[in-house]
Design goal:
The chain is of the alpha/beta class. The protein has 11 helices and 5 strands.
Length: about 290
């Protein structure tokens, strides 16, 4: 997430820092670290390849609080994140929870890591700077490595703020907003759920109260282009519509966001502020 960021840590990074400070890592019902997933999909993924017990923590007598288990029994998580601090924090969170984790800063390194590391799941950011996105990688992984569970961990409230349709999330994925992760258990539970093909409770992009959910797809695109700094004329050309249509869309956006057209605030600037607060500053296309 190199675009629209500053040297000041964002709220999601700060929250993960707090998680590391607590040291309260949850254990599964059988007393194993939460990184040891014992679901059907995880068993099919790892046990046949390494001849491991379906639930090695129980078989080996691992007790709650033991997080240093090594070897083939640790579930492998590939973290695809281009922000170094966020990636380092996620690695610490996952390692403390019993997972074997590796980081890749971009799609090229991630493709290489999939072959070398053989992950059970991938935790993907959507915005990865220049080049292919985490969404592009997710579709490739779903086609070529369908056994890898996929979870988006992103600043975007839904894919529309990334400039793509909400229906582009591959089936069976989890989708977590970074600003919603305030508890280590929630993140680990989400990974656990997706590993066993039960992501339905971890789809923040489908939440009716997510930021900007009241906007239509067309209105979201107009607002995203406005946040890129485009004029009404440039937005109209990009969308193949008239400037009058763009003006009407902006008026509807102001209404949905509760912005007064007449007042002390510039409504366009205020609408853009809503967008940036929800999804960050969008990169301009080159």
């Amino acid at each position: 997430m190199t675009h629209g960021t500053s040297s000041r840590p964002n709220s999601s990074t700060s929250q993960l820092t707090i998680l590391l400070a607590t040291g309260a890592w949850p254990a599964a019902a059988d007393g194993s670290p939460m990184g040891l997933v014992c679901g059907k999909r995880a068993a099919e993924r790892r046990a046949p390849q390494r001849h491991a017990p379906v639930c090695p923590a129980r078989d080996m007598g691992v007790r709650s609080g033991h997080t240093g288990l090594v070897g083939p029994f640790r579930r492998r998580i590939l973290v695809v994140e281009d922000e170094a601090l966020m990636g380092a924090l996620l690695l610490q969170v996952l390692d403390a929870a019993g997972f074997d984790a590796r980081i890749a800063p971009d799609v090229i390194d991630a493709r290489r890591a999939v072959v070398e590391f053989d992950p059970d799941a991938a935790l993907l950011d959507i915005s990865l700077g220049e080049g292919p996105s985490g969404l592009d990688l997710a579709h490739v992984l779903r086609r070529q490595y369908p056994h890898i569970a996929l979870i988006f961990l992103t600043k975007h409230p839904d894919l529309r703020t990334a400039g793509v349709g909400v229906d582009q999330v591959p089936e069976g994925c989890g989708f977590l907003r970074k600003d919603m992760i305030s508890d280590s258990r929630y993140l680990i539970d989400a990974i656990d759920a997706v590993l066993v093909d039960e992501p339905r409770d971890y789809r923040h992009d489908l939440s009716p109260d997510r930021p900007l959910s009241q906007l239509t797809a067309g209105q979201m695109e107009v607002l995203r282009l406005a946040a890129q700094g485009l004029t009404n004329g440039a937005i109209a050309r990009a969308r193949g519509v008239s400037e009058r249509a763009v003006e009407r869309s902006l008026q509807l956006i102001f209404g949905h966001l509760g912005i007064e057209a007449k007042g002390d605030l510039n409504p366009r600037v205020e609408a853009v502020r809503h967008y940036v607060q929800a999804a960050g500053l969008p990169a301009r296309p080159r």
